[in-house]
Amino acid sequence: MLPSQHALFEIPPGVCYLDGTAYSALPLSVRAAGERGVLTKSQPWKYPDARADALAESARAATARLIGATPDDIAILGSVSQGIATAARNLPLPFGQRILRMQHEFPSQALVWDRLASERGLALEIVPRPPDGDWTAAPLTAISRPGAPPIAVAALTPLHWSDAALVSLERLMQVLREAGATIVVDATQALGVMPIDVALLQPDFLAFPTYKWLLGPYSLGFLYAAPHRQSGLPLDENNGNRSSGIPAPGARRYD
Length: 255
Ligand SMILES: Cc1ncc(COP(=O)(O)O)c(C=O)c1O
Description:
CATH class of the largest domain: Alpha Beta
Number of domains: 2
CATH architecture of the largest domain: 3-Layer(aba) Sandwich
CATH topology of the largest domain: Aspartate Aminotransferase, domain 2
Mean pLDDT: 96
Distance between the termini: 37 Å
Bound molecules: pyridoxal-5'-phosphate
Structural class: alpha/beta
Largest sheet: 7 strands, mixed
Strand order of the largest sheet: 1-7-6-5-4-2-3
Order of helices and strands: HHHEHEHEHEHEHEEEE
Oligomer: single chain
Strand content: 15-25%
Helix content: 25-40%
CATH superfamily of the largest domain: Type I PLP-dependent aspartate aminotransferase-like (Major domain)
């Protein structure tokens, strides 16, 4: 069992903060790093290296280590919704096929799929919450339903935010890959509390923010893009992801 980590935080005695699933408290070390970050902008003459790529690259490398990816597979974004929108922008969505997602999914992993299904003429299949709570069996049944259109995209999570149910992505992904589906994962509630290995799971895209169980700041998130998904378009072009008009290498093109 993990021993008490209380000393790493500034939560005073008598306060029991249990809302990490929404907005975790920063450890002291992260607060200190954030304060150093603010200094680089309030006293920029003292921090000439603050705008160099090294800091972003070290965050990219740490993120890659966490999920079994390489730094080239990681894009730096501001939210999960940006990651999912980037995935949606770069996946084939053939007319008449299905987009599959889970009921009560978080809006960042639901709204874009619902809109695209209606705009592009795909069938939107929302797997209802199973009465027995088995969030692995229910999507499996939906995936393999005889006569149903092929699945273009499955929007999944390893840990459902609305009821904390675990979903066996390993089992779902295998069936989905055999069916030729692309797979987009929102790993927000899992990263930091359970292992996620993209080499094992092989999603097309996987997004998560830092402000929950990764104990980082708000407005920072990461997108894993599988190597074969690293030739698409970002949500917006900028000097970082299109230096001199040329796409940055790997998933950096989505930064
Ligand atoms: C499952 C899940 N996905 C995503 C998010 C955050 O999404 P975004 O970064 O788009 O605000 C949350 C935050 O509560 C969440 O619980």
